[in-house]
Amino acid sequence: MSDTNAALESKGIEQVAIDGATPAERLAGLARWVVVIGTLLSLVLVINQLFNLQLFGVVLIEGRYLYLLGGMYLALSFLIFQMRGGKGGVPSLLDWVLFAASLACTGYLVASAQRNLSSGWEYAAPEFAQYVSVVFFFLILEACRRAGGMVLFFIVLFFAFYPTFAGVVPDPFSGFQSSFMQTVPYHIYSAESSFGIPMKAFGGVVIGFILFGAVLQRTGGGQFFNDLALGMVGGYRGGAAKVSIFASGFMGSMSGSVISNVLTTGAVSIPAMRKTGFSAKTAAATEACASTGGVLMPPIMGATAFIMASFLSRPYVEIALAAAIPSILFYWGLFTGIDAYAARRGLKGLPKPDLPRLKEVMIEGWPYIFVFALLLYMMIGLRQESSAPFYATALLLLVNQFRARFRLNLQRLGNMIVGVGMGLAELTAILLGVGLIVGSFSATGLAGTLVNELVFMAGDSTLVLLAMGALTAFIFGMGMTVTACYIFLAVVLAPALEAGGLNQLAVHLFILYWGMVSYITPPVALGAFAASTMAGSNPIATGFEAMRLGGVIYIAPFFFVLNPALIGQAPAWEVVVALTSALIGVAMISSALQGYISLVGPLKGAMGMPLRIMTFVGGVLIAKPETALLPMSYAGSFAVGAALCALPIYSAWRANNEPAEPTVA
After folding, report:
1. Tell me: the pLDDT tens digits for 503-555?
2. Burial 348-363 (b: 16+ CB within 10 A, else e)
3. CB 71 within 8 A of CB 188
4. Cis link prior to 185 (omega < 30° from 0)?
5. What is the pTM assigned to this prediction?
6. 639: containing domain
7. Which candidate among 28, 450, 480, 562 keeps its CA 20 to 30 Å from the CA of 38?
8. Which has the closest alpha carbon to 436: 206, 145, 33?
């Protein structure tokens, strides 16, 4: 195993390939066939349920459907994830035993689902049902450990058992206490724990979009978006980094995973950046930031956005539209920062012979645009969110067979199915585990207590409450996946922020953003660490460079949570004014962080640092939302911010246009 992959495994990060083989390719023998068959059967089950096909005359109640779907992928996770970490390989005898135990428990849960529903087994399960729930409970914990890593496992483990000692915990963290044999059946049989909102979202909408994203990548979609980005911006200064921004944004939106996005697109973008003059740490930091932002970018945004829609009982389209402006601000800040970095160092774009012709790219890749158009039309126009990705996937597979370059043969098709199964099994194991946390808060009544305590500690100050919320989200984001962190904070933190009078949708996007910042922020910075191993840079230095390049991600959430116009929750004129001000302000902030104002000149000399501070403060004031919590109106803060930026802009222009010193003979 290479040093890079060893380092990734030590951090619990999935490696894309070992010795040239992906995890999907390394899963062989009987286990591979079981994963292929299990994945296909589960997809048939989902299609039958969502389209109400009633195959074989079977109509499943929701509980039975979720037990069957979750149990199948839980079982597959033991064949996919090794005991000591990593994907693929040959399952051990113990893995097969756990696989069989999962299927046996699933069979019982499916068969007894109707009795569970009618008899309230979450509070009064028969003795045998209790024993089954205990076995299934520990299977979930083990699968969560393998798929989510040790940090997430210990967090889930603590909260899963929390109801058994909640009564002896000091206030404000005490709650209703239950025995072990009361707690475990509640986790398995209630609709508030493992098979609650996260799994309902997974079985209803998420699975279709994960399938679509996987098929799109494996049928040439990733290559198309990369070539499209190359053709659009590759020739401009810092072009290789700007390509990374666009390509990673597209790919991240499809995959919903920061790490896999870094390791997939970074394999191409990081060497290209290094070749055109970027330092190793900046190349890695750019890729880490771009990949992190992809998870926040519509139209797909990974699994988390669909779970958010379920929590809020809103159409997914509303979530995606609300996330559009914050995503634009983040990528605009990253783009202007890269442009300033390249301009200050005199970096050029990629050589023209290395760039694809945009016209040829569009001619070859128009089917992907057509597929996306169908997806968006069905989601936005027809409001068919659950069925839209299946129609888009079917069209994609059909079109793909007429394109020789990316046509799926049996080997590629098999790898694609295994890859889909791996992704779905991983998400299922994590969602079932995180569901235990949600169930514990429900069983103990702790969620309501924490809301009241947080509001009390903040002293009725919304700004203090937001600062506490950002810190909480950042800390929990260090040990959890994006989806797991969001679910936890949606239960614990979001109600407290909403109680402070903030917009509900803005609050949920706020905790999503702050749960993401740990991917580029030391000491954890998993996204930056993964990129640094590919660039050969120092991980901590890469993390700090990513903080500077992606600095907008720390500020933008406060803008939109204080002013809902920045998530489209206001009249059109107000949205336009807020967005325009924010774009100008973000550009100034990025320029200050890089010490160069794009299209103007550098902030240098003895006054360089003071000028950068003035530019930063001015940018914040220009972008500042109009809110009762902060003084000054839009016009007032914009005027003060513009005045602060005027001197730095003039100084940068002077520095860029001063005559060169005469050469001494």
Report:
1. 899 999 998 888 888 888 887 778 888 888 888 888 888 989 999 888 888 88
2. ebbeeeebeeeeebee
3. no
4. no
5. 0.79
6. 570-656
7. 480
8. 145
Q: Is 554 exposed, middle or buried (0-12, 13-18, 19+ CB in 10 A)?
A: middle
Phi/psi of residue 141, nearest 5 degrees: -60, -45
Show the tokens assigned to 572: 């059109």
* Structural domain ending residue among the three candidates 195, 220, 254: 195
The Cα–Cα gap between 384 and 51 comes to 11
Task: Please give the average per-residue pLDDT across 56-62, as a whole number.
Answer: 77
What are the angstrom distances between the C-alpha of 459 and each of 201, 373, 449, 456, 501? Answer: 36, 49, 16, 5, 14
Q: By CB neighbour count within 10 A (0-12 exposed, 13-18 middle, 19+ buried), where does 382 fall? A: exposed
Once rounded to an integer, what is the mean pLDDT over residues 456-478?
78
Residue 45, SS3?
helix
Tell me the one-letter amino acid at 191.
A
pLDDT of residue 253: 66
Measured between alpha carbons, how far is 78 from 425 in angstroms, rounded to an integer? 9
Distance CA 247, CA 261 (A): 10
Mean pLDDT across the chain: 84
Residue at a domain's end among 195, 225, 253: 195
Is 56 inside a domain boundary? yes
Place of tokens 């890749």: 365
